[in-house]
Amino acid sequence: MRLLDPETAHRAALLGLRGGFGPRTRADKFPRLRTRLAGMDLPNPIGMAAGFDKNAEAPDALIAAGFGFVECGTVTPLAQAGNPRPRIFRLSEDRAVINRLGFNNEGLEPFADRLAARAGRAGIVGANVGANKESADRAADYVRGLGMVWKHAAYVTANISSPNTPGLRGLQERGALEDLLGRMNEARSALEAAHGKRPLFLKVAPDLDEAAVRDIAELALAYQLDALIVSNTTLQRPPQLTSDNRDESGGLSGQPLFQISTHVLRLFAQALEGRLPLIGVGGIENGATAFAKILAGASAVQLYSALVFQGPGLAARIADELDGLLAAEGFDSVAEAVGKGLG
Fold first, then answer.
1. Cβ neighbours around 185 below 10 Å, total
2. Does residue 333 carry a catalytic annotation?
3. How many Å separate Cα 170 from the centre of its chain?
4. Bigger pLDDT: 263 or 3?
5. Phi, psi (5° rounding) for residue 257?
6. How many domains are contained in the chain?
7. pLDDT tens, residue by residue, 221-264
8. Does the residue 342 lie in any domain?
9. Is 283 strand, coil or helix?
10. What is the pLDDT of residues 143-183, one digit of tens each?
């Protein structure tokens, strides 16, 4: 797979998973890892982040590989090709990836159809929705996304933090975010009446200052979001990067994102003081990094880039390592450890 260009390798991995060639392990192997998140009972707190399975092609294979939950997307109302290739770059020396995909996906209709087709199957599968690049009303795109996936997804995430759709991160600014959350809340009320409650999450960027963190935390509580996902990829380029691809434009993920994303996770945990659960993302590659996110305030974690270097068996390995770390530190559950490193 490493001999293929990154995007071709990604496609091959998805096809292999769909064909039944992925690893198989029980996600509930370790009772200590059972986690309750926003009303959902997770067999373990290790999730597949959005971006890997943009079109909801292989969620069941990922559940079978040991993930406690899987987030498909980001999906936009209309299909779009995304940015020109090449648009994914491995930074192997840095255990990192830069992407500038630009929400390439097949659109809401086939995405929702695939989620609907898995009705009755086991596993918690969420949907991550976004806005089309050329949209004249991006908030309306999120409302449309909620409407299309609500009935079929275990939870829904609004992704307002990709750096690869121009202007999208502007939705994190207070006025724009109030408008977006207000419109989403109105849509949510009608959807809950028709199809029942679902958790609604918001995915934010790591490149936020303390004032922005406070604003987002305040609005998340005011509009009764169920969790924040912290964080997306970063536009920063830490000075320790050594790969020849380090100057490519796009969002940086993988090991160099760990410190940046964990810092902003701590800021959110301090601002929220336990009033809203957090999902920690960025640089998770083993049990120790997953545990560090939990100690910094995350109730659950998600990963993606580390799979590029370690393969789809990673979820099971992290679960094993995390269970051992919790036991060694005297924790009987993930919930007991959440935020214990904030001191």
1. 14
2. no
3. 19
4. 263
5. -80, -15
6. 1
7. 999 999 999 999 999 999 999 999 999 999 999 999 999 999 99
8. no
9. coil
10. 999 999 999 999 999 999 999 999 999 999 999 999 999 99
Q: Helix 138-149 crosses helix 174-195 at what angle (to 10 degrees)?
A: 20
- Closest listed residue to residue 205, CA positions, set 143, 267, 249, 153: 267
> Distance between CA atoms of 223 and 221, rounded to whole angstroms?
5
The per-residue pLDDT for 15 is 95
160 near 82, Cβ under 8 Å?
no
What is the pTM for the complete model shown?
0.98
Q: What is the CATH number of the domain that holds 173?
A: 3.20.20.70
Six-digit token pair at 76? Answer: 């936009």
User: Residue 220 falls within a domain, yes or no?
Assistant: yes
Residue 51 sits at φ, ψ, to 5 deg, of: 115, -30
Q: How far is CA 55 from the centre of its chain?
A: 14
User: Catalytic: which of 135, 161, 162, 299?
Assistant: 162
Which residues 6+ apart lie within 8 Å of 138 measured at CB? 131, 132, 168, 171, 180
SS (H, E, C) 163-212: CCCCCHHHHHCHHHHHHHHHHHHHHHHHHHHHHCCCCEEEEECCCCCHHH
Q: DSSP assignment, residue 342?
A: -
Question: What is the domain range of residue 172?
Answer: 6-337
What pLDDT shows up at residue 1? 75
Please state the length of the chain.
343
- Do β-strands 251-254 and 46-48 pair in parallel, antiparallel, or remain unpaired? unpaired
Which ranges constitute the DSSP H helices of 208-304?
210-222, 257-272, 287-295
Residue type at position 231? S
Whether 343 has a pLDDT exceeding 90, the answer reads: no
The CA distance from 198 to 106, in Å, is 24
Q: Is residue 1 part of a domain?
A: no
Phi-psi region of 93 (alpha: psi -120 to 50; beta: other; left: phi over 0): alpha
pLDDT of residue 2: 74
| 343 is a domain residue | no
197 Cβ contact list (under 8 Å, min separation 6): 39
H or E segment to which residue 99 belongs = strand 96-99
